[in-house]
Every structure is written in structure tokens, then in C-alpha cells.
Amino acid sequence: MSSDSVTTGTAATTPDHTVAGVDLGDAALAADLRSTLDEVEKLLVSRLASGEDFLSEVALHLVTAGGKRFRPLMTLLTGQLGPEPDRERLVKAAVVCEMIHLATLYHDDVMDEAAMRRGVESANSRWDNSTAILAGDFLFAHASMLLADLGPAAVQLIAQTFAELVTGQMRETVGPGTGEQATDAAEHYLRVIWEKTGSLIAAAAQFGGEYSAADAEQIERLRRLGDAVGIAFQIADDIIDIASPADDSGKTPGTDLREGVHTLPMIYAMEDGSADSARLRELLAQPLTDDAEVAEALDLLRASEGMRRARIALEQYVDDAMAELDALPAGPANEALRRLVRFTVDRVG
Fold first, then answer.
1. Whole-angstrom distance, CA of residue 258 vs CA of residue 289
2. Residue 301 belongs to what H/E stretch?
3. Segments making up each domain of the chain, as ranges
4. How far is 268 from 288, CA to CA, in rounded Å?
5. 185: phi then psi, degrees, rounded to nearest 5
6. Are 310 and 272 in contact (CB under 8 A)?
7. Torsions phi, psi of 224, nearest 5?
8. Taking a C-beta distance cutoff of 8 angstroms, is the pair 71, 199 a contact?
9. pLDDT tens track for 234-256
10. Under CATH, domain 19-343 is a member of which superfamily?
């Protein structure tokens, strides 16, 4: 019998290597991860369903809407690299990371006045801003209770991560500054996305090392892996928002343009000194509301040097992630993490 198929009668069934839409390359590992992610989902839902009905309904709103569960997957996968994975602690840590991520989404949607999230009406739109903020706080509270089970080191890690998340949001709000206090726009943006996205993915990866008895050097490498993956993931989203048709990316192109967010491809495109960059600076001086101007900006960006430079930056962070994996224990989990990193890039086409 082939190792790649299981035969029943005359039909052959190919083993499922996928988790959350990513081919991890190993059927046994994928099956184990799907089982463990089911435990994550059950704990996540049971904790949030344990409060008053009026609170649980709002707190579960985005949970039931779906999502990639990328951060729990990072914790569970990196937890397979250490010599002694502690399944119970890994599951709790994975739930903590997802709760914190969800809480930030509730708060971000209030700040951005977003109407939709994960294909459903945002909580602030369906209810109101105060309800959405309180739902986010409810998620933070339950994450804190799970952290108490994991001990002081876990509490300290997430407290530090939460400070980085808030700093990134504030840094984005303040902007790169002007005059002598100005920060290079690209440097500022990369710092923001590390704080807002990379820091929590780094914590998720660090938890994997902490709860699989990895040594101190490996844990530090896992944290750096999470840093690189988090930044790469966000840059990929920046590129997709410009480059992909709506039916390919699952989101309407130009969302960042309409929200007035200057992402890395835009920053690079406005810096290249061409006539097109001058027009882009004019268009991007404020959020775009006119469909024709959004279409014009998208056309200019797609043909710009900024897109090429953003793709180069993306590949550099992927290379950084692969370098960390080169120095971590080999095996199915390492290969799966490589595939997960490449999936981040492959999304941009």
C-alpha cells in the first residue's frame, strides 16, 4: 500500500495534510493539530459562554464568525518542536492568544468605525461602541484568568505584549511626526505592525517553546520567528489589499485607501520621485471616498516601484523566519512551520 493513500475497496483516499487551509505536509501531524485546535475552540467558547447571556452573546460574536486561528496554530506548532509538549498548557496558552487577538479586534473596530468584520456586521455596528469595548474587556478578563493558571511568567509575557499592542496603536494614531522629531515613514510603519501584529504572534510562538521544555536559546529563536512571521503576514495583507481582485482576496481591494491607512507599498510608492508618485501623494493626502479615485490609486500602486520594494521586504522577513527554523529541531513540525511561512507569501500571488 502506498504511504500516500489508504485504499477501501476500489476507492483511494488521500490523507488530509491541511489545517486552517494550509498544507502542512504531514497527515499525522495535521490530524493531531486539528484535534488540538478542536480543544482550543471548545475551551474558548466554554469560557466566553460562562458569563451573563447579554455579555456572552457579544463576546462570542466574532468567535462564531470564524477566523484563521493563526495564533493558536503558531503556539501548537512551535510546541511540537520541544522535547516534552504539555498539551494542556499549550491549549490554554493558545486560547489566551486568541482571546487577546479577538479583544483587540473589538477595540480596533470601534476606533476605525468599522461596519464589517470577518464577513459579519461588526459588534460596534450591530450593538454600539460601548458594548463592543466592554466585550473586548470581557475577553481580556477571561484571558487573564487563564493566564493565572499558567503562572507568573505567562502573566508577565502577556502584560509585556499587551503594552506593545497599546504602544503600536498609539504610535499609529500619533503618526511619524514632523521636523526634527520625524521618523522615517517606512521605519515607523514597520515598527507599528511589529507592535500591533508581530508582538502577539511572537508571544504565541514563545509559549510553544515554554510549554514544550525547549531550552532558552530555542525559545528566543521561536520568539524571533514569531516576530518575522507577524511582520511578513501584515505586509502580505498590505500587498493583497492592493494587488488582488475582491473575489481572490476575500476582501474589497482598496480598503486601506478608503480608511486613510498608508501601508508599506504606498509609502514606498510615494517616495520614488516619479510623476505617478506625485499624483499618489495628492490622492493619498486624505481617505478616499470616491470609487473612481480609489480605482486610479490602485492602478498607480499596482504599477509602482513601491509594490516591488514591498515584495522584496516581505521576502526578507520570510528569509529571517527560515533562518530561525534552520537552527531549530528538524522534523514534521519544522517542515510544517516552513510551509506556513511560505503560505504567507504565496497568498500575494
1. 6
2. helix 291-302
3. 19-343
4. 19
5. -60, -45
6. no
7. -65, -35
8. no
9. 999 999 999 977 554 445 788 88
10. Farnesyl Diphosphate Synthase (1.10.600.10)
